[in-house]
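debug: dumping io for the single-chain case to check the tokenizer round-trip. Nothing else runs in this session.
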Amino acid sequence: MLRAPVGGPAIASATLTAHMIIGVSIGSAVAWYLVRSGQKRAQLTASLVAAAVASGWFASQSFTPFTVAGHTIAAFAPLALLVRKAPPLAWKTLAARIGSALLLLQIALAALVRHHVVGLAWHFLVGGLAATAVLVPAVAVTQDESAFVREKRAARRTIAAVLTQALLGAVLLLMIAAGTDNVPLWRIVMNAHVLVGMLTLLAAASLSQILAAG
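debug: decoded output
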């Protein structure tokens, strides 16, 4: 929502303040829990959580494209250490995890695109790779008669999210090509694209976790 063009300066300031308060609160609670849990790599994960909070503060001071994109990646980086290894790793699980990582990279690229640091070509390239990496295992799960109900449900949610996100991206591309200057329409489609992008990442991550659990 911070990247989405919603409202004026007052709404943006209130949203940023709420984001910082919630982020510090959740980050502190998670770091405290990890340190006390004694789990393997808990201290390293807690350090990454603290680094994510610190990167958020630096990003709020400058709002330069690279600090914002860096904070986006830093916020999700601790999750990589919390993923439990599940040998042997099935190809569908591996593909879903790769797709989730590419979706995270896509979100960071979207921030850079919005600040005109990189072109749309990179956004489309990584988006296409991410969509392929996520859709292939998701479709395979829906066609697998031996798959569990929860796996098929997660796969259908992921497919719906990816297709909706791709459709919104195509609409934005057509609006750019047509030179649309309808501000309310731009806000609606852009906000939807941002929000569905986050939901797509969550859906893909959930699918990979469910597949790994078996």
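debug: round-trip ok. The mean pLDDT is 84.
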